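Appendix B, example 12.
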Amino acid sequence: MKFLFASDSFKGSLSSRKSGELLSQAAAEVFEGCTAQAIPMADGGEGTMEAMVSALSGTIRTVLVRGPLGDPVEARYGILPGNTAIVEMAEASGLCLVPEEKRSPWEAGSWGTGELLADALDQGMKSIILAIGGSATNDGGLGALSALGIRFKDLDGNLLCGRGCDLERVAQVDCSGLHPAAAGASFTVMCDVDNPLLGPDGATMTFGPQKGADPEMLEKLERGMENFASRSHRDLAAFPGAGAAGGMGFAMKAFLGADLKSGVETVLDLLEFDRLLEDVDLVVTGEGRLDWQSARGKVVSGVAGRCRKKGVPVLALVGGLGPGAERIYECGVSGLFALPDGPASLSDLMERTPELYLNAARRMFRILRTGCDLAKKD
């Protein structure tokens, strides 16, 4: 038997790499002499950069940048083979960097993300991939674009800082100072939402509240975003994904010509996943909690979709099942297995995840072995 293991991390309890090690151990116990390959997986969210650096033998570079509220932050990005950089917006402009009582998309800016992109260009990167989940900003990408050399000014010609509150003041856009290496680089945005920039489903109204915006602030930010779009690339405001990460999708598409792609599909392409499926008998994937959202661009559905095209069966070993989990079968998953082997609190489950995962993997492979033995009898 030849196995391929490609599971997402169980956030806070089990890394993608560790899940591969445990699956390999369980498979070897049940299928003596089997071969197995384990690859770290992610979907463009937290941990994507580290997973790709690990899988592709890349390196991590640390840069001192401006955080969401302007404070110095040490942020990292990955350097991959082929002059490719992978940047996580959350490293420099993430909500996790701002204490809950200080969260304010009115004051926050994405400068640090732009500084990471600029540093990658300085290092000679020709392909830059940006994962934009977990942002603290709603600045339309003003901060990041400013860090890359684009100048935004008000009616009096004053240079704007690049915060959410500056959106309504944008009157002039000067791209002449854009980083000179940007023109020779390609940009890809890992984006798993299709929200437009404006309107009730746009950046501000959909994601603003979770970043600390109250109703009054939301109205002001929305008016500002309308102004910014009108002063720059109003035609791209309705582009699917333009509203991602407080308008960062719009900024990357409009000013840098970025391609907005599914996070998990980008990861699978980087890993050359289709090639890895050659001669594989079974793939095991998984994630911490599988529910109806898992069928919409998460690791399990992405892996299953690629496997279905190649005719390779897929099992999913997950931490737990939520509402609508059965929808994952429509994506190509043949069977679902969950960790809990009895009543337990969440804290207990989190603490015992590696042990529970290994035991569940053993059960899964024993059931698979039984099926193989029955097939031989037929």
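The chain has a mean pLDDT of 93. The domain at 48-263 is CATH 3.90.1510.10 (Glycerate kinase, domain 2).
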